[in-house]
Input
Amino acid sequence: MIEINGKETSPEEATLLTEMESAFNQLEHEPLRTVLLDSLSSERDAVRAIGDSFSGFVKSKHALDVRRQFFASWQRTNNSAMSVEGLANRITAEAEEATSKFDSTRVLSMFRAAGRLNRVADEDLGVGGQVLHFELYYRMATEFTERDDLWQSRKFCLSSASEFKSWLDMSRLREPVMVGLFSLLIHEGYTHAELEMIAPLFNQWATEVMDLSPRDARRVLAWISVHCGGTEKNHFAHTCAAVSHYCEGSGAKIDLELAGNVFRTYLRRKAAVMKQLRDLY
Ligand SMILES: [Fe+2]
Ligand SMILES: [Fe+2]
Output
């Protein structure tokens, strides 16, 4: 056990905390950065539960249906490119409308905000010619569930995971645009930390527990490795730029209390999914 801020911390929790901090520190807006960092301190139990759930999953080869539930539910918490693009669409619609009201500098700022959201989704959508991330996840989940793809059935998705997905989509597609942007800030920083934390755990699980050769493990775990080494941190930086362009263009203000609520809710809801999974193994 390691101690962080006077609290005993598992290695997984420690990695999640330090990696989130390193992503969040890219945000120049100091008050909003403080709220992000404070939300980590106030949701330490959630972060701990997430770390425990991942480390519990890779301890052994769980029953096939448990693995199906894991991959079906986990996917609902990380597959969100569609709502990133939905949020970008809302911003360009608002910018088109603003052409008759605002000066061109402000309108351009709004389009640039949407442009930065496009950059967040580029890799997921295979814009540079890469394999779609959905395909990489499919390859991983299918390989680890005896090579059939039944894991995709909705019946394997836990209730907390569907609720997480509905909440995240709602915050980007129905709530004010700023709420969607706050949800993206926490998501990209959190995702960076999650993927960095699980990369060595899954590599060990694949080779030592699931009996894959190191070469096959690399191929099957590509969905994890493509998100490591700065990909998600860059998404966080693009989101920071989207926030400042959108505020400059639309005149929206940063509501710190609202932002803190979104950040803490995200961590609590993610933890709820990981705890419900943890109860299975
Ligand atoms: Fe992705
Ligand atoms: Fe991302």
User: Anything to note?
Assistant: The radius of gyration is 19 Å. The chain is about 75% helix and 0% strand. The pocket of fe (ii) ion (ligand 2) is lined by residues 120, 188, 191, 232, 235 (CB under 6 Å). Residues 177-209 form the longest helix (33 residues).
